[in-house]
Amino acid sequence: MPIDVLMPALSPTMTEGTLAKWLKKEGDAVKSGDIIAEIETDKATMEVESADEGRLGKIIVQAGTAGVKVNSLIAVILEEGEDASAIKLAAPSASSPLPNPPPQGLSSEAVARFGAGEGIRVAPSPSPVITGDRIMATPLAKRIAAENGVNLSGVSGTGPHGRIVKADVLGAKTAPAPTVAASAPVAAPVATGVLADTLGKLGQSFTTVPNNNIKKVTARRLLESKQTIPHFYLSVDCRIDTLLEMRKRINASGQKVSVNDFVIRATALALREVPDANAAWSDDAVLRFNEVDVSVAVATPNGLITPIIKQADGKGLAAISSEMRDLAERARAGKLKPEEFMGGGFTISNLGMFGVKQFSAIINPPQSCILAVGAGEQTPVVVDGKVEIATVMTCTLSVDHRSVDGAVGAQFLAAFKRRIEDPALMLM
Length: 428
Description:
- 26% of the residues lie in helices and 25% in strands.
- It is α+β, with helices and mostly antiparallel strands.
- Strand 12 and strand 13 (286-288) form a beta hairpin.
């Protein structure tokens, strides 16, 4: 019997994702463990392995399709000796619906084309189908709309169940724009089409870069964080000349470590000393984490992601350096496992490597603290009444005042500063 390939749940909270790429094409042999596709979730792009052997007989959901529900049918694998005619027997079960139910009475070939989002027409819908805050449109239609500044909320869909397809967008593009009286107020440019029209009238040119799932979710979480978490900020200047000298000696020995590795180590030990800063807020209780798991912000081509150094307080500089390098490389390649970036009790965001002197970061919920690390700069300091030149690194702690108060934040920064300025303490 043909084997259904379903949209996997790649994290505990995943309900849908984007089928970013097929790594196998129809007719290719597939072995158990082969990577057959890449799925883009709200956090990262991850590989999907086949659990079965055979031949990829039919791709149901085409590459680039967004909003594919978990457990939806995305492809069919044929076992040895089966041909394409057997696919007619591979109807999706109740637990594996297609991303959108096809009209009744379609052949298996038509169902496959429906899954791709193009090629089947039903009676036109008077308005676009909207699920939650998402307009149902094919990936191609979305791309053409973004490139031409067409607002999909005003486009009628003629695809399956009112889905907007390529022809609908092209038709909307050529339709004359409505006349607006000179005295009429201009609506706030919140939708792409409206904003594009407004910028066009102002004579501004621009390039449209579509937002992927990661950027959309990050934006939503940052907005929620700023609006719902009462942030306060504490800053401390750390002299890092001794740290830089120690790093130089370590690197000369053949073991490469970065300033950020020292920051991670100092943070982990400071959290062990001040466990009240390693916490999360809930309406019923403050949750204090038993493990010191430190998230570290990494910029990737798809957006920001925070891989985790787990139980960082029990790892030395060499172990932290090796693990962080591996996590960062796989984060940029979209190869992290969900458990490697979901969770953590405290986050570090280091922009010092880009020359940023000082900044305040937004808390990564449900965590209570994030440490923003600036660049080390030579500056005059007063020591025992005398002026000296020292390399100073400014670090700013953003704190959720509901779960961590000012005294606890200050205690954490004091413990952190003590270790950064005397890095020998981190070797103990």
